[in-house]
Every structure is written in C-alpha cells, then in structure tokens.
Backbone:
C-alpha cells in the first residue's frame, strides 16, 4: 500500500533515535577533548628523531646526518646540516651528528618515506596530532629540540615496531662485537702486513651503506 | 470550593489578568492600543523563544536520529546554542549584490516575517488566549499565509540571480499547488463546525465520550483523512523536507536564500519556522481539538499548556519526517499534489457530507455510517496509490551487483 514504505522509514529513524540513548553500539561519538580514544598502533602523522638516552636526547640521537631522508623527502620538508666534529654514537663509534635538523610539518605529507629509507632507524613516525599553533610559519617548523624523543617514547607509541627495531639493533651490535673479537684475535695471531686503517676512513664517511655493513669499520677504531 | 479548581482557574486566567494589570497603568484612551501591543509582544516573545529552541531541538533530534549527540558545547547540554547562533548571524557581513534591486532585496525578508507573524493573530492558544477572535479567522489565516509566497518571489526576483529566480518560481509552483489540498482538507472541518472562527471550531470539538474519548475531528473518518492531507500539504507549504525543493542545495545552491547573508538570512529562517508553527497551530486547532484536554479528568491543566503540548508534538513529527524522507523531485511533487492529494481531498468533502447527513442514525446504523465513511476514504486511497505508483517500483538494478 502507498505510504507503507514511509512508515517503515519512520520506524527506522525512531529506532535510531531511542537506540542512541541506551545502546552504546549505536552511539559511537567520542566527546573528544574530555574523552580520548586509544589511537591504533599504526597511526602516524609526522616524523620524530629517536634518541637513545632520555636524559640527554639531543646528545644521543641515532641520526648520523647522512641526509638520505632529506634527499628522498618528496615535499622536501627536511633540512639537515652536518656537524663539523664527530661524536661517539650509541655503540661508541665516532659519527657525524646533525647540527641542524628541521622538519617543516606544514609541508610534510606524512608519507613515511624518510622512515623507510633511514638505515639507522633514527627517524620514526610520531602520533602527536594536536599541532595547532597561533603562527603559520615558525611554529610549524620543528627543530631538533622539538623532534628528539627518547626510545622509550617510541616503545610506548609503536610497541611492536620498536621491539623489532631494538632486537635488530642488538643483534647487529652483537654480530659486530663478535666480528671485532675474531678480527682482534686474528690480528694478535698474525702480525699485520698492511695497516687496515688505510681503508677504514672511507667506510664510515660513505653515507649509503646499510647498518649491517657498517660495523665492519669498527675494528680499526674501537679496540685501539 | 476547594483549592484545585481555584488554582486551575487562576492559571487559566493568569495571562489575561497579567495583561489587564499592565494595561491599568496606562491612560484610558490608549488602553486598547496597549492591550494589542502587549499581545503582540507576548506572541513575539513566546514564538521567538520557541523558534530559538526549535532550531536547537531540531538539531538535537536530527543528531540523535543519526546517532550523534548534536550541539552540546554552548552551555550545559548546548542550551545556549540558539543565542550563539543569533550572535553569529548578527555579526556577519550583510552582502547585497550590486545588480540586486536593493529595496525589494531588503523588503523581502521583512515582509516574509511580517506575514508569517500576522497569522498568529487568529489562533486560539487557550480558552481566553486569542489575539483577535475573527468570525472569518480561517479565511484570514489562509489569506495572510498565502502572502508569504509573494515575499519569496520578491526575494528570488530582487536577488537578480538565476538560481534564486528559478527557486522562487519553483517555490511559487509548489506553494500554489499545495494551497489547494490544504484548503480542501480544511473545508470539511468548517462544514461540520458551521463556522470560520477558529475559536468556534475548537469549541465545536469540546466534550468526551465516557470522559476519555475526546470529540476531536481527528477521531472521525473524514477528520483522519483531512488531517493526513493537511499534514502533507503543511509540510509542503512550510518548505520542509521532503518538500524543500525551493532550497535544494544540490540543484539551486540555497534557492531564494542564495544572495542573502547575515541577519536577513536569519529572518528567512525565522519566517520559515514561524510559518511552520502557525500551520501546525492551525492543524492543532482544526483537527486536534485546539486547547481542549484529551480526557475529562485532565482538564485541570490550563488550556494553553494543552495547546503547547499538541503543537510541540506536531513539530517533533515534522522534525522526525525531515530526518526520514529524502527530497522529492519536482514532477513527483506536482504529481503528488494534483493527482493524489486534490482528488482525495475532494472525495473527503463527499464523505463529510455523508457523515453530516447520517448524523441522526440510530446506534446500530452508526456502525454502517463508520464503515461506509472509512471505506469511502480507504478504498480510493489504496486504488489511487496503486494506480499512481504502478510501474514505478520497486526499482530493479540491472547493472549493479545485488
């Protein structure tokens, strides 16, 4: 009969109206500033720099200023200046560090390419979404000071990702130590014919290598 | 004389006594003018506030129906939202297009609000609360209500905008088409009551069977049909969804409101809600017994409270319908009016004539009277509906995956 569809429709809307008062499955709104949902682990927006030590985040950045992310960034929102000197990194090896590391989050498109290309697991995606500021330009240009966050923070926001990274770094460090021990033993057994330090300087300065190849450069510098 | 009836009588008379008290302070010569002024102020204040909170209620109810809370930030549970909206509207820039007819562009919202407001003059809000008890009140109501169409066309023409003009023409076509079923749905009530005075029509619906079954026009076969036709036509007359074609955003931007901003826009909005309230007030008066209580033992509650309750429930039904039905197409709109509502309303006139002729039938024949009246309504409704919707549905999706 004409009009029965209208009555059915009215019944549906009435059901939704009353359902929204007693059925939490229907009424899904989160009242944002007062209530917060837990963000999904995969949620990401802008990059941050991982630091090893929470007490001294700027001094213990994993970043070695290799500038791969700067070159790969599609909107070119990363700006890095290398340091003139070298500082020992987490493994004790002397490395460059970023004197300036800026990310313009007004331009960043959250593509995560910087994270994917970083050989040092030094840049990861953050979950801070309340980035509103009163000023358009300088306030949205994040400096090293704003970007450096400790590894514990990384563990808190992306637990499984951080655990995987930590396990890998630890394994690499162990492998490097093992190799160094073997090399030191070999050096002690056989008198040196050619000084390995002649090839050593080229290895750390070349920016491209993956971290697994990098510790090969360890033996000349660390045992001495 | 116990306290109950005294209290109820006091509440019943309180608004009028307050007016008389205030009028006592002015000289005798200007007393009628002062009375009229106080009535106007009261109507403006009550319906202004009703308009403000109706917008909030509409947003809240729509929100709940769509499973979200609606506005709840301004004040506790959002009760200050209408005032925030008003301030926003007042502080907005008032833009008049260079090519617009400035005078008409300015006059249209003013005229619209004025005509929507004058219709309240003849509505009996309570036993003693009627601004002017005109003998031809219903006629006056429709005359004033129809003038709003002029204002809408003024707005569309003066804007000098294609969308606004098209929308105004649509609005004219719609409003004039639905004026007919609206009037035809009202005629039976006038035939039965024998008067055009709204107060008289309400009084004609007084009384209860066994103290609980009120003699409202709604509870007769012709009254039910008339009320349904009236409701549909009133939806269309007040430009409410699903008949909000004059301001169909997808086709006409905002219709005749396209070139209006700031407070003028708010005036259009206000006029729309005033018009809706006025039409629903008339519906309550004509079909739902006006200010009469539904049961005899509930008549201690003041009459204007009953009127307000009935009016509010009708308004909620309007909001509910808005949340449910999608907008009609222009040809569907016209077909519904001319091919469906007008024939049914004309048939309803025959039914009410039969009802009046058989009023004196004895008790067993009353059943025949009811059955015949009902079948005169329902059979044409079903047949007409079937004929009009033949071949139109249900839609078969040939290419979409089922």
Residues:
């Amino acid at each position: 009969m004409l009009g029965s569809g209208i009555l059915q429709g009215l019944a549906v809307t009435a059901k939704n109206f009353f359902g929204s008062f007693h059925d939490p499955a229907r009424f899904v709104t989160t009242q944002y500033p007062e209530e917060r949902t837990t963000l999904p682990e995969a949620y990401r927006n802008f990059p941050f720099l991982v630091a090893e030590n929470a007490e001294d985040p700027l001094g213990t950045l994993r970043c070695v200023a290799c500038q791969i992310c700067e070159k790969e960034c599609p909107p070119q929102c990363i700006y890095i200046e290398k340091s003139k000197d070298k500082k020992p990194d987490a493994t004790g090896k002397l490395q460059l560090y970023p004197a300036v590391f800026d990310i313009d989050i007004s331009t960043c498109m959250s593509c995560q390419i910087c994270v994917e290309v970083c050989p040092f697991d030094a840049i990861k995606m953050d979950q801070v979404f309340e980035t509103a500021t009163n000023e358009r330009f300088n306030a949205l240009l994040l400096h090293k000071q704003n970007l450096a966050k400790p590894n514990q923070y990384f563990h808190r926001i992306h637990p499984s990702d951080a655990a995987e990274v930590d396990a890998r770094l630890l394994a690499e460090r162990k492998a490097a130590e093992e190799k160094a021990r073997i090399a030191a033993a070999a050096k002690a057994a056989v008198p040196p014919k050619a000084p390995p330090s002649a090839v050593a300087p080229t290895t750390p300065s070349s920016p491209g290598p993956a971290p697994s190849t990098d510790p090969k450069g360890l033996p000349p510098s660390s045992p001495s | 004389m116990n306290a109950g009836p005294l209290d109820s009588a006091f509440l019943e008379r309180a608004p009028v006594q307050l007016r008389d008290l205030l009028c006592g302070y002015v000289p005798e010569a200007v007393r009628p003018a002062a009375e009229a002024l106080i009535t106007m102020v009261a109507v403006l204040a009550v319906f202004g506030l009703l308009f403000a909170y109706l917008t909030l209620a509409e947003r809240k109810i729509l929100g709940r129906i769509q499973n979200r809370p609606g506005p709840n930030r301004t004040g506790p549970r959002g009760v200050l939202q209408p005032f925030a909206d008003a301030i926003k509207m007042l502080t907005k820039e008032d833009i008049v297009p260079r090519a617009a007819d400035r005078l008409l562009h300015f006059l249209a919202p003013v005229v619209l609000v004025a005509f929507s407001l004058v219709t309240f003059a003849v509505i009996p809000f309570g036993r003693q609360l009627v601004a002017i008890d005109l003998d031809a009140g219903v006629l006056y109501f429709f005359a004033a209500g129809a003038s709003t169409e002029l204002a809408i066309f003024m707005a569309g023409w003066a804007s000098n905008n294609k969308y606004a003009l098209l929308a105004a023409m649509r609005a004219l076509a719609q409003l004039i088409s639905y004026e007919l079923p609206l009037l035809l749905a009202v005629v039976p009530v006038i035939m039965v009551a024998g008067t055009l005075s709204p107060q008289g029509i309400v009084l004609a619906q007084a009384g209860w069977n066994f103290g609980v079954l009120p003699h409202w026009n709604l509870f007769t076969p012709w009254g039910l049909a008339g009320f349904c036709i009236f409701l549909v036509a009133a939806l269309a007359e007040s430009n409410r969804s699903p008949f909000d074609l004059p301001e169909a955003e997808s086709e006409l931007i905002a219709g005749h409101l396209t070139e209006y901003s700031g407070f003028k826009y708010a005036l259009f909005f206000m006029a729309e809600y005033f018009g809706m309230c006025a039409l629903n007030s008339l519906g309550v008066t004509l079909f739902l017994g006006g200010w009469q209580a539904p049961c005899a033992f509930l008549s201690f509650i003041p009459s204007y409270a009953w009127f307000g309750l009935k009016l509010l429930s009708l308004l909620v039904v309007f909001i509910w319908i808005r949340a449910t039905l999608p907008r009609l197409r222009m040809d569907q709109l016209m077909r519904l009016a001319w091919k469906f509502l007008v024939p049914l309303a004309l048939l309803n006139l025959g039914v009410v004539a039969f009802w009046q002729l058989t009023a004196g039938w004895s008790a067993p024949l009353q059943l025949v009277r009811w059955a015949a009246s009902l079948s005169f309504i329902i059979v044409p409704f079903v047949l007409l509906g079937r004929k009009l919707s033949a071949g139109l549905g249900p839609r078969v999706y040939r290419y979409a995956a089922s």
Notes: The longest strand of chain B covers residues 208-209. Chain B has one domain: 92-385. Chain B touches chain A at residues 61, 64-69, 72, 320-321, 323-325, 381-382, 384-386, 388-389 (CB under 8 Å). Confidence is low (pLDDT under 50) at residues 1-6 of chain B.
